[in-house]
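Hmm, how's this folded?
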Amino acid sequence: MSRVAILRASGTNCDQETARAFQIAGAKHIDILHLNRLLEKPEILGNFGILCLPGGFSFGDDLGAGRIFAVKIRHVLSDILQQFRDADKLILGICNGFQVLLKAGLLGDPARMTLTWNTPPRYTDRWVRLHTNPSKCVFLQGIDSLYLPIAHAEGRFAVSSPDDLAALQQNQQLPLCYEAGDNPNGSEENVAGVCDATGHVFGLMPHPERYIDAVQHPHWTRFRRVPAEGSGTALFHNAVKYTA
């Protein structure tokens, strides 16, 4: 069922770009839902095969990036979203959406891992090179590397202990990493994305929806070898194909 729900809230600002990425990837129906609508009628989520939480600054990040959004999900929608995942459907969180998924507990125990202030503690906006690790992550199947933009202040992945990091690695829940020497925020083990144990829930700090077309590449006017399709497109194609 390649029907996509893009869940937005006050401060979300990447919903339209994300909808376009899914449209290019072949999604049959895309609906941008406000969080309040889903809180009022959680059952409407059953009409979709993919749920995406896009980037932005939900609720102004006033209590920390993604925290208020995550609290609303954890207290009202947690069971619904777990049922959604267990029905072989997909959940994607991009940047602020990743922060929400992690703090809502949909990627594992939020007491054992977090996304916190970059090192040094400042907003960072640039392009990064990434590689994938073996995993069950549906979104990254067949993808070896990516070149994508990042734009965040609280994207540093950290865990509470080395044992927690080892467990995530053993469970293949760290499927996306910054290339060595290209870590923009100080994330432990260069982690750029985390999936749950099933591979159906995935969060990443880079923005795949911002590199769909060749003209979005930072050097598209300088080099002739820029691919016609941006590397972020493959991630959306994987999701749509899986739920078709």
Notes: Residues 183 and 190 are 6 Å apart (CA to CA). The helical segments are 15-24, 35-40, 67-86, 96-103, 162-170, 233-243.
